[in-house]
Amino acid sequence: MNNEETLIAGDAPQPTAHAFTMRQLLIFLIPSLLGVLLFLTPIVYDGKVTIGLGVMADALKTAFAASLPAIAVALLGFSAVIGLFASLFKPRWITERHALNELFNLHPFWLALRVVGALFAAMTFWEFGPEWIWSAYTGGVVLKDLAPVLITFFLVAGLILPLLTDYGLMEFCGTLVRNVFRKVFGLPGRSAIDAIASWLGSGTVGVLITAQQYQKGFYSAREAAVIATNFSIASIAFSLLITSFMKLDHLFVPFYLTVVVAGLAAAIITPRIPPLSWKKDVYLPGVGKQIKEDVPTGTSLLRWGITQAVKRANSNPSPAQMVKVGVHNVVDIWLGLLPLVMAIGTLSLAIAEYTPIFNWLSAPIVPLLELLQLPEAAKAAPAMLVGFADMFLPAVLGKGIESELTRFVVACVSLTQLIYMSEVGVLIIKAKLPLNLLELFVIFIIRTLITLPIIALMAHWIVG
Question: For residue 135, what are the domain limits?
């Protein structure tokens, strides 16, 4: 028996490429099927297409709707106060505990953002200070609309995500689609799960999965960067929301087909040019490469996929340890990510709402839109860039455009850009994926330039 055919954990019987027990198989099947049902199975609930995770998160959000902004303020305040205390005084009860030290003993830049996020939250909640901070279109959007979604969504997702990632499903799917993903996208087959989870759930779930897989050694720096910026697809539910908001719901099927075609083109091209092509296939120091998708000679793809999945499932820690990890993930997002979303999201929305910066930056896009024969090009141009701040802003700016053709293009482009600093961008930076703010903006522009002509061409054919 070689090293690839052994389990890591304990003295349990070791499944091989040719034999495993029913109990070992069920340890893979039961949690993985639950993960598929909760994360990847579309259902119609309350008149909209969603997933089980979305239903659970929405139920929590509805139950605590009145209290969630106050809870967000409390979490952000606690995060800033303890962060300041730990970073300034470095008490042993924090520094000697790895999880607490990582969460609260911060670099000055991240500490400053955490404090700013807490201040913005307080100013928005009690409506004091400059109006550009607490306005309904800036801080109000983040604290009252975005933060409640993130609190409830990640509470549920953080606790049950191991069902999707740690019980063999990614090994199984990765083995089956390995050749396609390697040849087309230059990625491991398991990255298909990231794309599906984003498509049916949300882009933030896709990034969360990618970050965890990178930190565990299943993705290299290049692979993690490519997946996070090209496969964190806007969900079907959000796509329906956008088409309804922009009065394009009667065109939803061709609309989503256009998004898929343009998105696939961007996912094929973007990783092959800088800055993503400059990323190295190196793994996180101290973790190393953990992924093995090669199929031994004489073993069928299906059999090897099941074997790899069973080995992964049976090498996991106990359910209690899994819950402990899940709780840590939730706390890390609540206390580490929320302040960054509040700070960066509010500033980004304020720039879009109160300054002409996006108008200036989008001026060179006007001739391109005119070349593509899109009416009201000057109105549409800012919507092409403002999505970098928040994924909903292009729809807000584009709703007033009279031309259905141009609204169609704006809506499609906004869903293929993928990098929104108020959510996905902040999560990428917080998760320490190998990407910085400038690189994220460059990738955002590249994806826009790739998808815009494709979408415009299809829009002329579909809308006329």
Answer: 14-242+272-341
